[in-house]
Amino acid sequence: MNPLKSYTDRFRSYVHRSIRGRRNVSLLLLVALLVLVFNEVLTRKDALPTESTFGDVLLGFAIEMGGAVVVFLILEQGIEKIRRLSIFEVGEQPELPIAKFIEDVRKASDQVRILDTWTCLINEDEYRKDFEPALKEAIRNGAKVEILLIEPDSEGARQRAAELGGSGIDVIEEIRRCLRRFGRLQQEVEEEITNSGDGQKHLEIKLYNASPSIYLHWCDDQTYWSFFSVNKRADKTPQLEVPISAQLGRYLAHRFDELWEDDDTRPLDQYLQSVRNRA
């Protein structure tokens, strides 16, 4: 067996154990390197060819190990970020767990946020019959609901339509149906709020005019997120389950806020009024 490969494997094992044990990676890199250098030098000392010197072996080994150490040092920062992220128990789902998310919405008392192009939660009747009552229940519990959907006439919507061109989905019509249904739901919620005497606006829906970037479902302190795939609906792709308190969760919140406050983002009722004016 190649002794360098043996020691490299041992070195990698030390690093993996340090990540699992949450030890200091930098210190371990240094200690492991020193152990390997001295071990290899002592092993090769007695096997030196007559024409070689002890310094030749040490120099050659140092060059070999130096490259590996440089790589590990470059990766160290990324390894530490992954280690810190693992503390927050980031989970993965094969696709959006729709039934669980709807139940989480029903129990929400702080906030519900959705960032999508359109959503099957309201476009597909099998989900809509549970999602709409759950959303109303969350609002009665005091949760603030913010939903971001894409402008159907935007370049971003046309881009998404092209990405899903092979799936047989009429993207623009799905978006428009979604907006019509959310418009009716928003009107129902506002009437309930008016009748209850609560002047606060608990359901806000806006349309963004940008390329779809992340797919996000956020309920209280937990989020599901993914990227938009080609020829596949985002809810059917693997989802990361991330607490909003994690570093990644804070990034997702920042991205949502950025789109929510963008100058080109406008309220749903403004869009629906423009459609009525054109009719």
Tell me what you see in this structure.
The protein is α+β, with helices and mostly antiparallel strands and 279 residues long. 59% of the residues lie in helices and 14% in strands. The protein contains 10 helices and 8 strands. The chain has an 8-stranded mixed β-sheet with strand order 1-7-6-5-2-3-4-8, with helices on both faces. The protein is globular. The N and C termini lie far apart (78 Å).
Straight-line distance between termini: 78 Å
- The percent of residues in helical segments reads 55-70%
Q: Provide the spatial order of strands within the biggest beta sheet.
A: 1-7-6-5-2-3-4-8
Largest sheet: 8 strands, mixed
Total number of helical segments? 10
Determine the strand fraction and express it as a percent band.
Answer: 5-15%
Q: Radius of gyration from the CA trace?
A: 28 Å
- What does the overall shape look like? globular
Overall number of strands: 8
What structural class do the secondary elements suggest?
alpha+beta
Low-confidence stretches: 1-26
Mean pLDDT: 79
Order of helices and strands: HHHEHEHHEHHEEEEHEH
